[in-house]
Amino acid sequence: MNVFLAIDLGAGSGRVIAGETDNKDLRLEEIHRFDNPGTDLPGGSFWNLVGLFRDIQEGLRIAQSRYGKRIVAIGIDTWGCDFGLLDAHGRLLGLPHQYRDPRHEGMAEAMEKLMPEAEVYRHTGITSNFYNSSLHLLAEKKIDSPALAAATDLLFVPDILAYWLCGKKAVERTVASTSQLLDPGTGDWSWDVIDALGLPRDIFGEIVAPGTVLGPLRTEVARVTGLEGVPVVASASHDTASAVAGIPMEGDDRLWLSSGTWSIMGLETAEPIRTDEALAARCCNELGVDGSVRFLKNIAGLWLIQECRRQWAIEGEELGYAELARLAGEADPLTAFIDPDDPIFAAPGDMPGRIRDYCAKTGQTVPETKGRILRVATESLALKYRVVLERFRSLSGKSFDRLHAGGGGIQNTFLAQSTADAAGIEVVAGPVEATSCGNLIVQMIATGHLPDLAAGRKLIRDSFEFQTYTPRDTATWDEAYERFRKLL
After folding, report:
1. What keywords are assigned to this protein (predicted)?
2. Per the domain annotation, does 402 fall within a domain?
3. Do 49 and 92 contact (CB within 8 A), yes or no?
4. Sign of the dihedral through C-alpha 373, 374, 377, 383
5. What is the pLDDT of residue 427?
6. Does the reported pTM lie above 0.85?
7. Is residue 42 part of a domain?
8. Strand boundaries in 226-283, DSSP class E
9. Over the chain (488 residues), what is each successive 10-residue block's mean pLDDT?
């Protein structure tokens, strides 16, 4: 059985995952897990990319000791937007800033004066958000950054790590599409936006499609890891692009949900949707595998429940996620609602207290027990999914009768069932490791072990268990939805 290695990095931790496969079955094993904490330094908040690279090499070394010459390829996926600048000698000009770095403050307003958001959206299909690469580059320009002046290449985080592994500089298309600097219709840089912001054209280099083989590991990396000659593949380098590729979807109405700390709901489409209505709904067009577009909307996710759990642990009571789901399931249903995306819930802190305060301020029954607090949070999140679903129906002209959900959040069965109930459609949940699965099948396609994305999704469908949730008591949930909409 061949082995493919997925390097999966999140904004908190990273992993090296081995996918062992005979092209009929796919098995996953976590080889190495490591922390990825951001660090506040004089001058801003940064990622320790050198430390990450060291941990990646350690994971590859462990993988080689277990699988040896059966390892076929390596691919990387990470969060989007964050980038580094390189000089003519390929040297990184400082550590990459985190997307939450405060240098973005005031940049949306500055960009609006250079090119209105509506025009930017027509070019890029991306709304203006604090994490956009465009705003962070504009911030560098505003301070006459020496790094920007000296740079010859801009690479996003997965591109930098791939370059360090194999020596090939290239920008992978799915991660570039998060930047607000790429045209999702052409798949190339949006030069009109780049020029309007006054950014230097020459730093925006070659864009490659997901599934491009970049080349073998550098001699120095091969010596450290023992993986001589193993190629690095520019997989679907944005983690959400990998997650969507890893969710087996069939038919034309491809509605998906990547469920985790934060939720992303979207459509897999052939063309971007860049209408005024889509902009008003704050939907974005990012690129996926096989020429697809991910038309999506960010939504709060299990963050609400995780923060409740953390607060109760601070107060002295440790509760597992299974216990939290049980408490929510036993509480009275549909007693009160919150808007999960209200800014009051965005920052870490006393989430149970904030939920109670929100209900009190909106004249609703205040949840006092842990079970009721969790139920309010879970049912509100499910109803918010329905709000987004209705927007997608309006914008796409499609009805949708099935939601394909993947990611760690689907392990919360109470949320999955509530989603089916609230949205009134079937929810097919799986796989939990959608991101790693997507990363792996793109590598398999790139190296000729699978013919196409459809075959990769069939491999995933045949290899993992899926749970189907059907809607219940639709009349009660329809009434709850009307109450929820009035609250919003």
Report:
1. ATP-binding, Disulfide bond, Kinase, Nucleotide-binding, Rhamnose metabolism, Transferase
2. yes
3. yes
4. negative
5. 97
6. yes
7. yes
8. 231-234, 255-259, 262-269
9. 96 94 97 92 93 98 98 97 98 94 94 98 96 97 96 98 98 98 98 98 97 98 98 97 95 88 93 96 97 95 93 96 93 97 89 98 97 98 97 93 94 95 97 97 98 97 97 97 96
Q: Which residues of 123-158 are buried (b: 16+ CB within 10 A; e: fewer)?
A: bbbbbbbebbbbbbbbbbbeeebeebeebbbbbbbb
3-state secondary structure at position 322: helix
Helix locations, 362-433, DSSP H? 370-396, 413-423
- CA of 181: how far to CAs of 81, 146, 281, 288, 296, in Å? 10, 21, 20, 16, 17
Pick from 210, 237, 264: which residue ends a domain? 237
What CATH code is carried by the domain that includes residue 419?
3.30.420.40
* Cβ count near 341 (within 10 Å): 18
Q: Is 388 exposed, middle or buried (0-12, 13-18, 19+ CB in 10 A)?
A: buried
User: Has residue 49 been placed in a domain?
Assistant: yes
Query: Is there a single domain that holds both residue 344 and residue 211?
Result: no
Place of tokens 């400082």: 94
Would you state the structure tokens that stand for residue 367, as one six-digit string?
């949840």
Domain holding 483, by residue range, is 247-430+466-488
Regarding whether 222 and 154 lie in a shared domain, the answer is yes
* Whether residue 186 sits in one domain with residue 267: no
Domain final position from 237, 259, 281: 237
Q: Using alpha carbons, select from 408, 427, 417, 299 the residue that is nearest to residue 10.
A: 408
Q: Which residue is catalytic, options 239, 339, 341, 421?
A: 239
Structure tokens that stand for 444 in this block: 């398999």
Is residue 104 assigned to a domain? yes
Q: Report the number of distinct structural domains present in the chain.
A: 2
Q: CB within 8 A of 265, min separation 6: which ones?
A: 255, 256, 257, 258, 296, 297, 299, 385, 388, 389, 392
- Check the CA dihedral 283-286-292-297 and report its sign: negative
* Three-class SS state of 41: strand
CA–CA separation, 281 and 300 (whole Å) = 15
Given a contact cutoff of 8 angstroms between Cβ atoms, the answer to whether 236 and 439 are in contact is yes
- Active site (annotated) includes residue 183: no
What distance, in Å, lies between the first and last C-alpha atoms of the chain?
52
